[in-house]
Amino acid sequence: MLVVSTIALTSAVLMAWRGPAYGDFLLGLIVVSLAVLLVLAFVRLQADHKVGVHIGDLVEKHRRIEELHRVDSLTGALSRAYFLDAFKVQMKGEGGRSGLALLIIDIDRFKWVNDTFGHDMGDAMLAHVGRVLTTRFPGALVGRIGGDEFAIAFAGPVSDKTCRWAGERVLETLREPARLLQRTMQTEATVGVAWAPEHATSSDDLISRADLALYEAKRAGRRCVCTYDAGLMKKQQYDSFITRELRAAILLDHLELHYQPLVNLSDGEIVAVEALARWRHPVRGLIPPSEFIPVAEDSSLIELLGTWVLRRACRDARLWPDIRIGINVSPKQLQRPEFADSVVDLFAQEGIDPRRFVFEVTENILLESTERHKDQLNRLRSCGVRLSLDDFGTGHSSLGYLREFTFDSLKIDREFVKDLGQSETSRTFVAAIAHIGRGLGMSVVGEGVETEEQAKMLHAAGCSYAQGYFFAVPMSAADLTEYLKSPPEPVVPSDWPRSLAGRQA
Ligand code: C2E
Ligand code: MG
Ligand code: MG
To answer: Could you tell me the pLDDT band of residue 454, with boundaries at 50, 70 and 90?
Structure first.
């Protein structure tokens, strides 16, 4: 424009000064300049348009990349990083005022789903959970914060009752049957809940509190909701203490192994003993297995403990050549691919016959049975180790699973045995379990027998063996040796086989 105005002004001046001929020439020059300028402006506009389109593309791409990072593509829930950011913001707002509940949801047996139905089913289940949580709880902040872990934050008035209720609703909603890859599946989950401002005022602290509650819910058997309370923090500190001290106790050989006899109910003979770990802490005194075994199972300590128990049992077993030894094996140990081989090596090193050992596994192993568990159990069985299904009736037992594994014996949990004589239901259960066990070729053992009446009823119900304080309490290897040399004088009831009389130690 400046150029055109300059030329126009110059031609006007020249026309006035030199006459119209110069004016015509200059007018032509202006027209040509204008045409050139128009062409240049057009080219510039085109270029600008292209750049504009390009920038638009870039913005859209950037938006999509953001979206991809923001939302977990498989589940539609917020990705971990975005959830944590958004949750932090909510904690600063609602968390400090009206209240904010954080639920951490862990899908139960997800590994089993993957191993049994394939990874496509695992993905379908995760997508289903994401869909359910984002659509059925609108307004809540939903994120996928781990492989099979989700989090939901609800803003609003919070209390133990409302948070527990919210957790139950989540479990119920997930439990509704859904068609996934041509199968009808139910998703079971476990929930831990903590809320602000009561439990924490920072997002990191609230997440760790909800995590603690989740951990507790898993310990309580899963498929449930656990809410945080200050006691859980103390428990966590105690668990860390147990982990530290137990490692040292195992390495320093400070544990003891006790043995509890199993008797044949038809002749009273002691046919086997069960090895039970005992820990006498120098300051805290006797710590029961119910306190240290779950902690060991949650860490790699259970492997160390298992090896210690087996080695000690192999050595003690030489003292009683006619008696089999029962060893409790945790599912965690069976998860290790090299478990069976390491056991076989240990038997070889100790020069002991594997047929003298009975490995006891709890029925929850059936629930989470994977090919790996099966391989390990089959490998052990093929080298002569017997297998026993422990604590039967207390876990999530399904008779269908019994077809998948071959067990040599089945131990009826003491929960059923303790009510024998008082509850008709218990008697019916015990008789039914004994019938199924025998029908499947297993010998059936009653656990936790404390009275003569219970022993008699087990016998009448078809159990072959029994174990419990009525016969003998767990005792050290030295005490068992003495006990076997001279069992206590039996007190024989008139209608009871002589050898079965109480052998209280
Ligand atoms: P379990 O395998 O079912 O062992 C039987 C438990 O019942 C033992 O408890 C035993 O002392 C107790 N008991 C035996 N007779 C009676 C009775 O008449 N009445 C009552 N009330 N109880 C009786 P303990 O030694 O406290 O062991 C508890 C659990 O800890 C065991 O249950 C087992 O699952 C686990 N455990 C013990 N030692 C080991 C171990 O070395 N490795 C592993 N993985 N688990 C172990
Ligand atoms: Mg046992
Ligand atoms: Mg048991």
So the answer is: very high
